[in-house]
């Protein structure tokens, strides 16, 4: 291998066709190498994609292990059969960092390993083009969420993740030693986003991690995940929230379609476009499941199989597999959920199911101080334990509501992934705390 007499500016693989007949330098990882006669065809991968480098003579014999980091200099030429329509005729190849033997191959269409093995070596499996595409799409979803909310007059907020009490009561909290006092990792920014609405900001959103100390060990649960939270004041119906989320998802999916075409093609994904999403009360959903599939559901709720079957039912009506499930009973909703106007045993709340999985929970909140304090007592809790949250309600709180979208669930459902861990860069579940 020769060394550079002069260093060329770096060119990304995807931009190689723009530099036909010009000297360029590619830097990236050895994706694969194939030798044919006196030639070697070296595929180099960087953040933009893969480019082919043609090595001749002494360079063709270079010992380059897969995933080694290299710098390849030469002249770009148009080549219709090469990835991206161009290739690099190499004049020099420098190995910047040699790779050790790999636990699995990364130059296959999919990684030939179990998901647990891939997660054990997560920093390596993240390099695979399909995995890389997953997080490019996820980044676009989060960016489009921020863009949409900012464009609708919402203020981005940043709320504490160390809290004195849970937002929903219960025991699914991670305790933390806080200078000799008991604190917890926040299971939701719910209280704080309501407080920011009442503090005069009216419309707020947050993109941040939340923590649930739940003993689940399933393909749909994480103990730390990213929540896309929305809260808005001066609304009178949860219908306003559902309309907002439908418009939001159309914008997010549209931005993914606009900016992630190569990634969607690589993943074989055709984006749905949510429009006129059905609203089905949970009691009606249970009747549909019983009559159509013989499915019995838990009282006032849907289990995972029920969610999958209801989405199947909706998709059979020639609609994308989105459905809002509404009117959940009060006894399975949080203490701040607003009772439904026509029946106080139900709530003005909803879940959004997408491709067989709940990705959103939302609804109207109680905004009257006395009513909220009573609701807390009805749960066997002491309003005094929530004084910091309740205090603002004493000084005037507008009618309000909101929702939260699980980013990993949204990503995995959109891309048709079987396990939500595939949409988490470094998942945290009941058994995984590293890497």
TrEMBL record:
Record-stated family: Belongs to the class-II aminoacyl-tRNA synthetase family. Type 2 subfamily.
Source species of the chain: Paenibacillus hodogayensis
Reactions catalysed, as given in the entry: tRNA(Asx) + L-aspartate + ATP = L-aspartyl-tRNA(Asx) + AMP + diphosphate
Site (Important for tRNA non-discrimination): 83
Aspartate: region residues: 190-193
Assigned EC number: 6.1.1.23
UniProt-annotated binding residues for L-aspartate: 168, 212, 361, 365
InterPro entries on file: Aa-tRNA-synt_II (IPR004364), aa-tRNA-synth_II (IPR006195), aa-tRNA-synth_II/BPL/LPL (IPR045864), Asp-tRNA_synthase_2 (IPR004523), Asp/Asn-tRNA-synth_IIb (IPR002312), NA-bd_OB-fold (IPR012340), NA-bd_OB_tRNA (IPR004365)
Biological function: Aspartyl-tRNA synthetase with relaxed tRNA specificity since it is able to aspartylate not only its cognate tRNA(Asp) but also tRNA(Asn). Reaction proceeds in two steps: L-aspartate is first activated by ATP to form Asp-AMP and then transferred to the acceptor end of tRNA(Asp/Asn).
Location in or out of the cell: Cytoplasm
Coiled-coil region(s): none
Positions contributing to ATP binding: 212-214, 220-222, 358, 406-409
Name this protein carries in UniProt: Aspartate--tRNA(Asp/Asn) ligase
Phylogenetic lineage: Bacteria, Bacillati, Bacillota, Bacilli, Bacillales
Main location: cytoplasm
Domain Aminoacyl-transfer RNA synthetases class-II family profile: 135-435
Single annotated GO MF: aspartate-tRNA(Asn) ligase activity
